[in-house]
């Protein structure tokens, strides 16, 4: 009975080494896959953070100017809030700053006493490694004014 064991001459060692190599390859592949998943999750988090930053800057500009500055504005402007850039642009583009008919009002005036001034406010924020990504949030504002004011 001892004689058949001598005939193997290291076959168990050979197969165990093959299994060990295969398991090492699988382990390395899983480690690479998980590091890529972590990088992608981090990039998604950076984008969500930039979106919140851009929307926050937009809200600050609107809240700071909504009382009277929008209706009396005569030129485009650039503001910096929350480490981002906010642009205030008079509309319509072909003749900026003029009074136009209100699009979103149900109030009617027979003498056309009420008109609107339109603005576009956009807020930009950068994200990603080295700030290579840029995200911009844009909103339109229509403010009622007395015609001729």
Structure summary, number of beta strands:
4
- Low-confidence blocks of residues: none
Number of helices: 3
Largest sheet: 4 strands, antiparallel
Helix content: 40-55%
Keywords: Membrane, Transmembrane, Transmembrane helix
Protein name: Type IV fimbrial biogenesis protein PilX
Pfam families: PilX_N
Quick rundown:
By secondary structure, the protein is of the alpha+beta class. The protein has helices at 2-6, 11-65, 69-72, and strands at 77-81, 84-91, 114-127, 133-146. It has a four-stranded antiparallel sheet with strand order 1-2-3-4.
Secondary-structure map:
Layout: H1 2-6, H2 11-65, H3 69-72, E1 77-81, E2 84-91, E3 114-127, E4 133-146
Antiparallel strand pairs: 1-2, 2-3, 3-4
Protein traits:
single chain; alpha+beta; rod-shaped; 149 residues; four-stranded antiparallel β-sheet; 3 helices
Task: Describe, in plain words, how this protein is organized in 3D.
By secondary structure, the protein is an alpha+beta fold. The protein has helices at residues 2-6, 11-65, 69-72, and strands at residues 77-81, 84-91, 114-127, 133-146. Strands 1-2-3-4 form a four-stranded antiparallel beta sheet. The chain starts with a helix and ends with a strand. The model has no long low-confidence stretch (mean pLDDT 81). Residues 9-59 form the Type 4 fimbrial biogenesis protein PilX N-terminal domain. It holds the Pfam family PilX_N.
């Amino acid at each position: 009975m001892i004689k058949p064991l001598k005939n193997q001459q290291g076959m168990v060692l050979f197969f165990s080494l093959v299994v060990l190599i295969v398991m090492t390859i699988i382990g390395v592949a899983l480690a690479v896959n998980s590091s890529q998943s972590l990088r992608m999750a981090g990039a998604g988090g950076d984008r969500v953070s930039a979106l919140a930053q851009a929307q926050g800057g937009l809200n600050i500009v609107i809240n700071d100017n909504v009382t009277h500055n929008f209706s009396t504005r005569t030129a485009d402007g650039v503001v910096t809030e929350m480490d981002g850039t906010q642009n205030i642009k008079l509309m319509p583009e072909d003749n900026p700053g003029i009074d136009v008919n209100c699009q979103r009002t149900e109030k009617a005036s027979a003498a056309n006493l009420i008109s609107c001034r339109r603005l576009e406010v956009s807020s930009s924020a950068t994200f990603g490694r080295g700030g290579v990504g840029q995200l911009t949030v844009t909103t339109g504002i229509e403010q009622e004014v007395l015609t001729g004011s």
